[in-house]
Amino acid sequence: MNGAESLLRTLLNNSIDLCLMNPGTSEMQFVSALDRAPGMRSVLCLFEGVVSGAADGYARMSGKPAATLLHLGPGLANGLANFHNAHKARSPVVSIVGQHSTQHLPFNAPLTTDIEQLARPVSGWVHTLTSPGRMGAATIEAITAALQPPGQVATLIVPADYSWCEAGAPGEAIVRPVRELPDPARIRAIAEILRSSGSAALLLSGRALLDRALVAAAKLAAATGVRVFADRYAARMQRGAGRFAPEKIPYFPEPALESLAGIEHMILVEAYPPVSFFGYPNLPSLMAPPDCPMHVLATPEEDGTGALEALAEECGARKAPGPAATLRPELPRDGALTAQTIGRTLAALMPDDAIITDEMVSSGEAVWRELEGAPPFDYLAVTGGSIGQGLPVALGAALACPRRKAIALEADGSGMYTLQALWTMARENLDVVTVIFANRSYRILNIELRRTGAAEAGPRAAEMMDIGHPNLDWVALARGQGVEATRATTAGEFAAQYGAALRDRGPRLIEAVLAD
Amino acid sequence: MNGAESLLRTLLNNSIDLCLMNPGTSEMQFVSALDRAPGMRSVLCLFEGVVSGAADGYARMSGKPAATLLHLGPGLANGLANFHNAHKARSPVVSIVGQHSTQHLPFNAPLTTDIEQLARPVSGWVHTLTSPGRMGAATIEAITAALQPPGQVATLIVPADYSWCEAGAPGEAIVRPVRELPDPARIRAIAEILRSSGSAALLLSGRALLDRALVAAAKLAAATGVRVFADRYAARMQRGAGRFAPEKIPYFPEPALESLAGIEHMILVEAYPPVSFFGYPNLPSLMAPPDCPMHVLATPEEDGTGALEALAEECGARKAPGPAATLRPELPRDGALTAQTIGRTLAALMPDDAIITDEMVSSGEAVWRELEGAPPFDYLAVTGGSIGQGLPVALGAALACPRRKAIALEADGSGMYTLQALWTMARENLDVVTVIFANRSYRILNIELRRTGAAEAGPRAAEMMDIGHPNLDWVALARGQGVEATRATTAGEFAAQYGAALRDRGPRLIEAVLAD
């Protein structure tokens, strides 16, 4: 068995059965081996940022790694921005990157570059295979590293000749590491804080924003009065009617500081101390009060859900408030098309168990406010701030959960970074409804320009934030990649088109031209 | 004057008056300063790979650096693949990358990453500004580094607060470094080789493929019988009727080895020893005969043109062959649309002083053979092998040479990596005719699969090289970004559409659906 087949079979032996790829010459052996190692689903993407973003979305929803296959340093380079997001999302990914054959590498051919150096800033583990005989073992190391709690990008660089040489048996299945519960003494100490302080807060991130953890947090809030906050950059939140809803810390520092003012103890659950997205003149970076001590209930590596349950037990918090009823807003049938009317439409028509990806940027807050009463959904946020994650993450989520509707809420500016995701949605007939919030502007930058202390935008600065000359035609961009698409310019048009898109199966795109 | 304005004025003081950008919050001060520092042309791109590729194309044609402005590590990450190409093209670029403010950086906000590490593999010089007062001086260092012969990517990382602080006076104009002539002794030694060996070869790269160098090479060939080869990955070649045409070393190793067989002395002029693009089982990487000594007439840093002229003088080679007449092929007016008929159409209709970018991949050789007799043109090749350089390089070339027609010859697969370049072509009304060679396949990979010793493609492997399900509609993708576009499916349609596109000014795209 050659190296490529040994690698594929090692992945399969570990239930890693999805490979997202944009391969080149150095990776042809892996492509060829797909026909000899059945069970690996291979999904082609036309740009590497789609590969890495989809692997992130898949990991967030399935909890397990996909493999990715990219072509040498430049192929990896194109995937880095979304690997950065995956890294910040703590998503497990086994990233396979081809390298020139060992004989060829010293000759400095055009594609030669330092792949390890490129991989390191976004990977928890980087290794270049040193002999074909180590293929099975090295792949096991990569899988082990990817699964290391809380999850990370593990990059295995494979010289081309090691994939075509005889490589021996594949690696066997490993035991998946489990997250550990924090020390009971730590839980007791934090219980004591909750009992004694009238103004403590929990900050939840990681897997502590999923159902079981939310139930425990709700009990704690009811019993102790602790406030509960959600890290707005967490990889996955479960939200919607019937669920306890932690407060999402606002994006801009002024309201974020205000929301956390007066807190005397902050208890971190798989979370880091809350910081603002950007630094601004004369504003702090830390959003908690400067003298507020931080207590770690569970590190990102530990089992925050179990820790919350143990803490609730310790506090005698056994009663969760009754679930709030679903409160769908009325469907807006006429009027101007705004982020708010879109949000209301989304809530009014929310299908069961939807998965929402959010890269709406400046439209996000208005939409979010409308979603609280909608039936339960999973919400996948921007984690690392690299623009261009929304469509690929939705693609990956749809691969992980083929029976659930994925809804990609995307801005027109951010969608352009990885619009190639639409083609793979069409090819795989994935059930993703994309809504493009078209304000024909990098509007967030118009806001940020003033915030960073720069003057009002002059005409040339304004031009650099205007993406409306020429207007992007998202209907054409989607149809050009095989995705059915329509354009809505009023609330009524949007409601009708969105309703129709939800009733269909398969990818649909609606360009929502915003009035505001 | 704040840091951003000081940086812009330092660039302007050094005649760097084009800034390609995709800025974010951390770069807002630079955007704001555009209105206070007139003279800087700012060009917005919707994806960072367009920024870096356009800077490469601009440098290749203008010989001077553009500035680029990208947003933090992830923004740089998206630009890396085309910076890799710029690096291999030896293109001077002043790459400005924003960083979080120094106060904010330690807080590990979502976008935080190791920018220096990302920049290093593609940059000749990397520096993070250490104080606002050093802005002028550091920018001068960056410009000096970029201009260091033969040219390189110089990356200056600027913390946001250093762009909003008071920063003092901008840096003054520097004296541009000149390339040095090699030692006369080296030239005499090589002249002696040419006199004594019946089978020597010159390998030209860098600026030694432009007119003046070609004249000297022609004289040397006529006088001494030396064979003259062109590095096929050189940044810029001047070609076409009336010019001496060095042999282009073939892409695949077998014909490349054959073309260089029997050569006893290889003389490198701004070139490295010729190597194959990829390594293959049982084939060497070095394309010259293994016992053939390499002699350096001029390193990439030196003045290869002057060296060739001095060598011609030393050899008494004063007579160039008379220029070959322009030999336009007849315009194909009917029949199937193939790479060959497209090549013939391009040659038949070649405008004066056209600039051609080549990312045709598998169609390239057939087109190239048809271009020899066409009127003179500049030819910009793939340099570093990162896919997605063709459209951005054409965009940059058009910015550098607004009175010349740029013709982007692009494959459908490779075009998808940076299709966002079309929007900037429309926005800036650049005179670029894009021809998409649509074979609906990563055809080169079908060839490479067999070459790397993998078996014939099985059905699942074949699917990973097929980009035809669904077909990309390049007419829609272009119109969606404001570029007029048509589709040709026969030689006659292509001739008519291409002729019309050449007569117009402004960006046009033709999707040429290949019959073969």
Q: How would you explain this protein's 3D organization?
A:
- Two copies of one chain form a homodimer.
- The first copy, chain A, has 516 residues and is an alpha/beta fold.
- The first copy, chain A, folds into three domains: 3-164, Thiamin diphosphate (ThDP)-binding fold, Pyr/PP domains (Rossmann fold, 3-Layer(aba) Sandwich), CATH 3.40.50; 184-314, Rossmann fold (3-Layer(aba) Sandwich), CATH 3.40.50.1220; 339-513, Rossmann fold.
- The first copy, chain A, is built from 20 helices and 18 strands.
- The first copy, chain A, has helices at 3-13, 28-33, 48-62, 72-89, 115-119, 135-147, 160-164, 184-196, 211-224, 253-260, 304-314, 339-349, 364-371, 390-400, 412-415, 421-427, 443-451, 459-463, 474-479, 491-503, and strands at 18-22, 41-44, 66-70, 93-99, 125-128, 153-159, 200-204, 227-230, 237-239, 247-248, 265-269, 294-298, 354-359, 377-380, 406-411, 432-438, 484-488, 508-513.
- In chain A, the strands form three sheets. A seven-stranded mixed sheet of chain A has the order 9-14-13-15-16-18-17, with helices on both faces. In chain A, strands 2-1-3-4-6-5 form a six-stranded parallel sheet, with helices on both faces.
- In chain A, helix 1 (3-13) runs parallel beside helix 6, helix 12 (339-349) runs parallel beside helix 13 and helix 12 (339-349) packs parallel to helix 20.
- The longest helix of chain A is centred in the first third of the chain and has 18 residues, at 72-89.
- The first copy, chain A, is globular.
- Chains A and B meet through helix 2, helix 4, helix 7, helix 16 and helix 17 of A and helix 2, helix 4, helix 7, helix 16 and helix 17 of B.
